[in-house]
Design goal:
With about 180 residues, the chain is an alpha+beta fold. It has three helices and ten strands, in the order H-E-E-E-E-E-E-E-E-H-E-E-H. A hairpin with a 2-residue loop joins strand 9 and strand 10. InterPro entries: CNP1-like_dom.
Length: about 180
């Protein structure tokens, strides 16, 4: 007598589930690969534009930056100096530090996409701007000195909208003045 063996053919539902899982895995792999490639291209291809000279600034009308209690230094940004380059993702501005015996200014830039800042030049009131020899971008996070912790405050306070720049300097100033904190990490 001959044994009858049933051939097991996959059920249509099982076939669809297996195909869906395979398709999802392929799409995920493609998406992650594309994202990684974009991130690497961004790093490899990004180039800073030519840095314009420091703009003139005013001591009146500064947008104050919160400083720790008891600090004798008051800091603020001159809103008229804020410029945006959407192509490079850089916002530049002049920040002014006023102490009991001195007024100093720094011409700086922030890259919201990378969470970095850079000081282009410094000035003691009444003197010429002095170009900063350090051309490296520094992380905004982890700066322990009160004098260099302000870029993160500015990014959170309105210069950045998450990891992107706001559209206009007026948008940035409005956000800085309202005290809203963006979702900047």
């Amino acid at each position: 007598m001959r044994a009858i063996t049933a051939s097991r053919t996959p059920q249509p539902a099982r076939v669809r589930q297996a195909m869906a899982r395979t398709l999802a895995a392929c799409l995920l792999a493609i998406g992650l690969g594309a994202h990684a490639q974009y991130a690497n291209d961004d790093i490899a291809d990004w180039k800073e534009d030519a840095v314009p000279p420091p703009p003139a600034y005013r001591l009146s009308g500064l947008v104050d930056i919160d400083m720790p209690n008891g600090s004798s230094i008051k800091m603020g940004v001159d809103p008229k100096t804020i410029t945006i380059n959407q192509a490079t993702g850089i916002v530049r501005y002049v920040v002014v530090a006023r102490g009991p015996s001195a007024v100093n200014a720094a011409y700086e830039g922030i890259r919201c996409a990378t969470g970095e800042f850079r000081v282009y030049a410094r000035q003691v009131q009444g003197s010429e701007w002095v170009t900063n020899t350090d051309t490296e971008w520094k992380p905004m996070r982890g700066q322990s000195s009160v004098v260099v912790s302000h870029p993160l405050q500015l990014a959170r306070g309105g210069m950045c909208n998450g990891s992107t720049l706001r559209q206009t300097p007026n948008d940035m100033v409005r956000e800085l003045l309202t005290g809203n904190q963006s979702l900047y990490n």
